[in-house]
Design brief:
An 8-stranded mixed sheet has the order 1-2-3-4-5-6-8-7, sandwiched between helices. The protein has 8 helices and 8 strands, in the order ααββαααβββαβαββα. The protein has about 210 residues and is α+β, with helices and mostly antiparallel strands. The radius of gyration is 18 Å and the shape is globular. Helix 6 packs across helix 7. The N terminus is likely disordered.
C-alpha cells in the first residue's frame, strides 16, 4: 500500500495573549477523527466501505505481482483467505480509518484507497487492479478521497509515499499537491527485501492549490 507532523500556529506572536484567549473561546475545536467511512461518487466511480463479498475480487487483484510488488504490507502469493482475514480486521470498526473500495459502475471491486491513523499521523495508501491502469481512475479516486478528508479534517496533515520505482504513484501524489519529505528504505513484504521509499505530505492549503488532475 502506497504511504513531519503538523505544526500548530503560534498565534500569540501575532495577536497577543489577550486576543489569543478570545479567539480560542469562540473557535470550534477541530475534529479528532474524520468520522465514519463515507460513500463518494465521482464521474466514473463509486467509492464505498468494503463488504465481505469483495474478498474474491481483492484476492484476484492482489495475487498479481505487478500490483503487490508496489505495496509494503501485502504478501505474495495472496489468496482469498488473506482477503477474508483483512476484511474481518477492518470491519471490526475499532479504528477511525477509512478503507474505501474503488468500484466501477457495475459495483465491481477494482481497487482500494485507505486513510489510516498510524503512530499519530494520517496516511493515505492505495492500489488498483492492473487491468484498470492508465485510465486516470486512481487519480480520480484519490482526488475525491483527499477532498472529502480535508472537508472533515481541514487542519490535518496527510502523509503518503511510494517506492522509488513506482513512478505512476508518485505522479498521482505530485498532481494532488503532495511534497516530498525524505527518502528512506522500507521493507516490502512481497519483495521480502528493503527498497527505497519516497515519503510525501500534504496540507489542505497545498491541496487547494491544485487546479486540475
Amino acid at each position: 500500500m502506497v504511504q513531519a507532523g503538523s505544526q500548530d500556529l503560534d498565534v500569540s506572536q501575532e495577536l497577543g495573549g489577550y486576543a489569543v484567549i478570545a479567539v480560542q473561546e469562540r473557535r470550534t475545536p477541530a475534529p479528532s477523527t474524520p468520522g465514519s467511512c463515507p460513500v463518494i461518487e465521482t464521474e466514473r466511480l463509486i467509492l464505498r466501505p468494503h463488504r465481505m463479498t469483495d474478498a474474491d475480487a481483492i484476492a484476484v487483484s492482489l495475487n498479481d505481482w505487478q500490483v503487490t510488488r508496489m505495496l509494503s504490507r501485502v504478501p505474495m502469493p495472496y489468496d482469498r483467505q488473506d482477503a477474508v482475514d483483512w476484511l474481518n480486521r477492518i470491519k471490526a470498526g475499532v479504528t477511525p480509518d477509512w478503507y474505501l473500495a474503488i468500484t466501477s459502475g457495475d459495483d465491481v471491486h477494482i481497487g482500494m484507497i485507505a486513510v489510516e491513523l498510524r503512530h499519530g499521523l494520517w496516511h493515505m495508501g492505495y492500489w488498483l487492479n492492473r487491468f484498470y491502469w492508465g485510465r486516470g481512475l486512481m487519480s480520480e479516486a484519490a482526488y475525491a478521497v483527499v477532498d472529502r478528508f480535508f472537508r472533515r479534517m481541514p487542519e490535518a496533515v496527510l502523509h503518503s509515499g511510494a517506492f522509488a520505482d513506482n513512478a505512476a504513484s508518485l505522479k498521482i501524489q505530485q498532481k494532488l499537491g503532495f511534497t516530498i519529505t525524505r527518502c528512506a528504505d522500507l521493507f516490502s513484504l512481497s519483495r521480502n527485501a528493503m527498497a527505497a521509499h519516497i515519503e510525501t505530505r500534504l496540507t489542505q492549503d497545498g491541496f487547494q492549490g491544485v487546479k486540475s488532475l
